[in-house]
């Protein structure tokens, strides 16, 4: 029978179903086996194979969990791995996504370590990041003054003295192993933090001891010690065990050093390197100074070549002054000559428009006008007399007075209004009669109206 398209799966879908089935049915498991092919690429993830006599299992430990693994994870080591079974879909690889790795035989301690580490990490105890003074003025070293630990302390002191003799170092004796170690270190941290308020020069703490087994280093995995380091006002560096040993104190500290000697190298600079750098800087400064002096010497030579004797400068300036004086004199003479020509031109123009000449012309015109006036006046007066006589005759002809002279009269009332009709009067009214010569006072008498 040919396959039904509805039931045919793609490779991707099949791998997805297989991954989901593995993750749901198997879940988290602990698997014990031997490490093989441990690989640590630059991404920070760890890839390895877990095998026994008859089978092997590919494993992946991602970066976010790899930093909490204390086991060194070397090929051939026997370990226990906790993780969830899954499938890498792009290649169809069956694998274990690891969450925790611990050496076989240390299972209980490592399990407790992992649980406590996860708890403190979730609370933010591992979030310290204060800056340690570099170099510290007064370093407080918490470690054991006896046993094998003193050798590591002496090594630290030797490195500090060789690299930076100026740093003051005080050893605070505390047990670093056993039941009393963690409480003693916690009490010492509290005391040092209280004393730092009185002595500000105390500015850093180094918590250190040499390597050992997981049991030997267990005091540094104490929960209360990790919290004391987190709450310390003084910055703390932790250098516990060897490079592969990582304790909770290392995670809680502001900085971790892989070994006590490495801690000393991180805390202070190497005076020999500084001296070499100072020597190199001194040589560079000397070379730069010589080069600058050479440049300034050349510049001085150039300026010296340009610099002339004051007498030469004065002579040059004197010649310039003489030239300028000659130019000024010529300019003044030219300006005066131009002014003289302009003045002569103005005099000629003034002479042409002299007031005396104009006065003579106007005097002649006035004399001629007077003569003409004397000649014209008699004729004009005679002509005007003739015109006046003619106008008087015409006026006399039309004048009301002339009519009055022929016997007529003009009647006026007291208001000076001319009486034209008899009806304009009333009996007893006083009138004035204007005659050709003189006036008469009249009174209106009653009588019959005339038409």
From TrEMBL:
Assigned EC number: 3.1.11.6
InterPro entries, per database record: Exonuc_VII_L, Exonuc_VII_lsu_C, OB-fold_nuc-bd_dom
Translocase in keyword set: no
Reaction catalysis annotation: Exonucleolytic cleavage in either 5'- to 3'- or 3'- to 5'-direction to yield nucleoside 5'-phosphates
Main location, first listed in the record: cytoplasm
Coiled coil ranges: 271-349
Subcellular location: Cytoplasm
Segments forming domain OB-fold nucleic acid binding: 9-101
Family matches, as CDD domains: ExoVII_LU_OBF (cd04489)
Domain of life assignment: Bacteria
Segments forming domain Exonuclease VII large subunit C-terminal: 129-441
Keywords: Coiled coil, Cytoplasm, Exonuclease, Hydrolase, Nuclease
Top-level EC class as recorded in UniProt: hydrolase
Family: Belongs to the XseA family.
NCBIfam families assigned to the protein according to its UniProt record, in alphabetical order: xseA (TIGR00237)
Subunit-structure text: Heterooligomer composed of large and small subunits.
Primary role: Bidirectionally degrades single-stranded DNA into large acid-insoluble oligonucleotides, which are then degraded further into small acid-soluble oligonucleotides.
Record-given protein name: Exodeoxyribonuclease 7 large subunit
Organism of derivation: Halomonas salina
